[in-house]
């Protein structure tokens, strides 16, 4: 096998140049030889190539090397040789782990490599199934199409987060592990005794995070029957039956004829929550708080919508933040508003 005989004091410098140009053979171990080290290199390396990358006066020799039996540790290690680094980073950024399931985005030009990528993700995460995103989140139920690419074909799982457990089917309901910090943030603001409306409750992630910590009464509403069924199961699973009332149906219809006055309203339906602002304002007591979410590139329009919907009542903005990125320049934003 080909090796580069380099003086010890230059070894690190030369190794880095070889790495930069992908000329090092990473499957073999570097070996020592007196005041020299022998760096395993790719078989096509010759002195002309060395000179081009600024390495002079080193000898290329034929020798044996020990196999490098380092276990792969990152997704990059698993995908080395299959994809370029930039593509691996792209895939890594799109990665979501929900319970035993991995969901990732694979660009169309990697269609042929999709199963190998899936297998790599399976080994790296040690989960049970890998799905590829096949559409954007869409429709009233806020779900997306998924393509199974590796592991068992299961789409139901239990996700653990801050001491709560959420059972769900990734094909049938909305759930984002990227909202974990937001749920924790909101649940830390709640006080015992509050009456809360979770207008778009999904499988109950905000409601359960709150009810696990506080003695509250939460009306958790969702229009997706699958989400509602998981919501009921999750209430049992997390033992918060005394604190959450699950409601199946359209939250507008539910609130319209009720004269409910809540201490806190959660509106996590960022694409169209604005359409429900007036009913939310009607249902919040003076001194109550609305957690309003929207897809936006800044906060101004969201705040304006809140103020307009509340008029003639007054609104004080307590906090505004970028919760997570949606697309370049576009954010899932959150605004906390105190309504008088
Ligand atoms: C973005 S998801 C949020 C779910 C949950 N709050 C979470 O953070 O995981 C929005 C949810 O609102 C529900 N939804 C949409 N329109 C609704 C309506 N008019 N009334 C009640 N629920 C609705 C969808 O079914 C979906 O589960």
Summarize the structure.
With 340 residues, this protein is α/β, with parallel strands linked by helices.
List keywords for this structure.
alpha/beta; 11 helices; 31% strand; single chain; Rossmann fold; Alpha-Beta Plaits; 340 residues; GMP Synthetase, Chain A, domain 3; elongated; 29% helix
Give a structural overview.
The protein has 340 residues and is an alpha/beta fold. The protein has three domains: 2-62, Alpha-Beta Plaits (2-Layer Sandwich), CATH 3.30.70; 75-154, Met-10+ protein-like domains (GMP Synthetase, Chain A, domain 3), CATH 3.30.300; 174-339, Rossmann fold. It is 29% helix and 31% strand. The protein has helices at 8-20, 47-52, 75-79, 85-93, 114-125, 180-189, 205-211, 225-237, 251-256, 277-282, 300-310, and strands at 2-7, 31-33, 36-40, 59-62, 96-98, 101-104, 129-133, 146-151, 156-161, 164-169, 195-198, 217-222, 244-248, 262-267, 284-296, 315-327, 330-339. Helix 6 (180-189) crosses helix 7 (205-211). It is elongated. It starts with a strand and ends with a strand. The model has no long low-confidence stretch (mean pLDDT 93). Bound molecules: S-adenosylmethionine (SAM).
Please state the CA-atom Rg, rounded to the nearest Å.
Answer: 27 Å
Shape: elongated
Question: Can you tell me the CATH superfamily of the largest domain?
Answer: Vaccinia Virus protein VP39
CATH architecture of the largest domain: 3-Layer(aba) Sandwich
The tally of domains stands at 3
How much strand?
25-35%
Model regions low in confidence, pLDDT < 50 over at least 5 residues: none
Q: How many alpha or pi helices?
A: 11
So what's the CATH class of the largest domain? Answer: Alpha Beta
Order of helical and strand elements: EHEEHEHHEEHEEEEHEHEHEHEHEHEE
Ligand inventory: S-adenosylmethionine
């Amino acid at each position: 096998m080909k090796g580069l005989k380099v003086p010890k004091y230059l070894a690190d410098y030369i190794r880095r140049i070889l790495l930069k140009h992908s000329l090092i053979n990473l499957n073999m171990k570097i070996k020592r030889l007196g005041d020299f080290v022998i760096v395993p290199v790719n078989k096509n390396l010759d002195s002309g190539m060395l000179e081009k990358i600024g390495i002079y006066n080193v000898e290329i020799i034929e020798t044996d090397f020990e196999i490098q039996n380092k276990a792969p540790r990152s997704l990059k290690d698993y995908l080395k040789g299959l994809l370029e680094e930039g593509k691996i980073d792209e895939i890594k950024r799109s990665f979501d782990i929900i319970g035993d399931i991995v969901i990732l985005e694979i660009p169309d030009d990697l269609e042929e490599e999709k199963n190998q990528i899936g297998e790599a993700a399976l080994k790296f995460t040690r989960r049970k199934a890998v799905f590829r995103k096949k559409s954007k989140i869409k429709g009233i139920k806020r779900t997306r199409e998924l393509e199974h690419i590796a592991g068992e074909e299961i789409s139901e799982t239990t996700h653990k987060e801050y001491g709560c457990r959420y059972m769900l089917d990734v094909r049938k309901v909305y759930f984002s592990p990227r909202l974990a910090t937001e749920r924790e943030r909101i649940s830390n603001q709640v006080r015992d005794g509050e009456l809360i409306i979770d207008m778009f409750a999904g499988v109950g992630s905000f409601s359960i995070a709150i009810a696990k910590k506080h003695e509250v009464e939460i009306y958790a509403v969702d229009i997706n029957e699958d989400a509602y069924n998981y919501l009921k199961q999750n209430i049992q699973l997390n033992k918060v039956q005394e604190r959450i009332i699950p409601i199946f149906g359209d939250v507008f219809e539910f609130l319209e004829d009720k004269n409910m006055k809540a201490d806190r309203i959660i509106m996590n339906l960022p694409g169209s929550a604005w359409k429900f602002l007036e009913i939310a304002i009607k249902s919040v007591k003076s001194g109550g708080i609305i957690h309003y979410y929207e897809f936006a590139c800044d906060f101004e329009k969201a705040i304006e919508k809140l103020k307009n919907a509340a008029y003639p009542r007054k609104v004080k903005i307590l906090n505004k933040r970028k919760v997570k990125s949606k697309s370049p320049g576009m954010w899932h934003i959150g605004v906390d508003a105190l309504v008088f």
